[in-house]
Amino acid sequence: MHLAPDMKSYVLGALMLGASSLFWFSVGKMAGAFSWHDTFGILSVVSLTCYLVVASLALILYQERRLFVGVVAIGFVPFFLSIPFRLEYVLLVLLALLAASRSFSSVKDELHNHLAFRVSPPLRRGLPILLTVFSLILASVYYFTTGASMSVSGKDLLPKSLFNLIVKTTEPNILQLVLPGFNHLITVDEYIRETLRRDASGSFDVLSPAQQAELLQHARTQLFEDFNLQVGGDELLSDAFYQAIIAKSEHLLEPYKRSIPFAFAIALFLFLRTVAFPYSWLVICTSWGIMRLLIHLRVVEIQEVQRPQEFVTWRHIG
């Protein structure tokens, strides 16, 4: 490719800015509810991968720190255009620029420490710094756009579908031991009737309908009095116990509701950092392949330079 080195650097920077714009646009579209959307979710992953691959090439090929940090800084303009502004984001971007500068220094130091050019060692030092700061920014976006204002309920922590799955899985063994005769398909009154018939040796059936109704009402009250819950006799037993568990969890969660969103943000950051380890190898391998292709196409070249090296020895006298 017959372009001046400076022009090639500008092309690389333009690719970084394009990928950064797509990434933050996609994140901004998902940030409202911070839920996965197929189109924007896939676009965000692909664009972030492209951005990091191009940034990895820039870390190796750029000779000036200010050029790399400048491109990274301009790449955050779409971030402020896509996400509702907060002063905290300015501090995070400044932290990202410091991380970019540190990443550049780490890569260059590693390149100078090796006599032969290799792609992997310098990127293994510089890329994790960028991934860490991106993980922090994404976790912060989640917290400020969704987590800080959301109200966490027991149903959020234990959805009905998950509860039904747990009941069906544990009913044959565990629930039958805790609540003999438990069946998620019967109603509350049916469960109480079967329990009374079993415990009272059939004397329940000789009671009048009015006495049975009064006894069922008393048993329902006793069964759910610890949960401060009024349950109808025709409700499914599993639904009644789900309401009881949710009511109890709401009481337990009340003192911690303000801190739970922050805990979720920390958990998201730790999750992203965990995923970043195998993800960084994907980026490094892709960068290695593209670098080999650029060398093959003679877009870049490996040059051998002689550099002075200092060493210490005994001083000769005379």
UniProtKB/TrEMBL annotation:
Q: Which keywords does this chain's UniProt record carry?
A: Membrane, Transmembrane, Transmembrane helix
Membrane in keyword set: yes
**What highest taxon heads this organism's lineage?**
Bacteria
TM annotation in the entry: 9-27, 39-60, 67-83, 89-105, 126-145, 262-284
Q: What is this protein called?
A: Uncharacterized protein
